[in-house]
Amino acid sequence: MRKIDAFVLVLCIALIVLPTQVAAKMRTGAKINWSSYDEAQKAGNDSRKFFIYFYTDQCGYCKLLEANTFTDERVIDYINNNYTPVRVNAGKELNIASRFGIQGVPDLRFLSSKGESIARWPGYIESARLLTMLQYIHTDSYKRMNFSDFVKEQKRE
């Protein structure tokens, strides 16, 4: 009986602590300051790179991305502070989606401040991995090393 009681106690603690830890990574009310493609083009911020998120309303992985990855405080802060974030509904804004050759969603694109393609990430991505990718692109590390080497370097630090 004692093993069962200990197990139940550990399980109860885990059910209390884990949601608290997850919530600590998320800030209630904080959101990515998305712009439309047209708004971002008109703003013409000449120093920030663009982070473009292509999605559709029916996409299950897009909903997961929005519920998990795009609610992480670290991701929100990094995107808002270092990028011009753009959100494009590929199902409704077909001209923009076709210009980028979008064939599936979610599709994340990284562009230079001049609109030149730097990188893309098709499919779902977890917040920790996206944060690393955001740092890799923002710091211009992509100009001197591949992503795998950047990840290894980050782990050493």
Walk me through this protein's architecture.
The chain has 157 residues and is an alpha+beta fold. It has one domain: Glutaredoxin (3-Layer(aba) Sandwich), CATH 3.40.30.10. 49% of the residues lie in helices and 16% in strands. The chain contains seven helices and four strands. The chain has a four-stranded mixed β-sheet with strand order 2-1-3-4. Strand 3 and strand 4 form a beta hairpin. Helix 4 packs parallel to helix 6. The longest helix has 24 residues. The protein is globular, with a radius of gyration of 19 Å. About 13% of the residues have low confidence.
CATH superfamily: Glutaredoxin
What is the tally of helical segments? Answer: 7
Task: Give the distance, in angstroms, between the N- and C-terminal Cα atoms.
Answer: 46 Å
Kindly state the mean pLDDT as a whole number? Answer: 86
What is the tally of beta strands? 4
Q: Widest sheet: strand order?
A: 2-1-3-4
Give the number of domains. 1
| CATH topology-level name | Glutaredoxin
Instruction: Tell me the major beta sheet.
Output: 4 strands, mixed
Beta-strand content:
15-25%
Structural class: alpha+beta
Give the helices and strands as they follow along the chain: HHEHHEHEEHH
The CATH class designation is: Alpha Beta
Secondary-structure arrangement, i.e. CATH architecture: 3-Layer(aba) Sandwich
Q: What shape does the CA trace take?
A: globular
Helix content: 40-55%
What is Rg? 19 Å
**Low-confidence spans:** 8-27
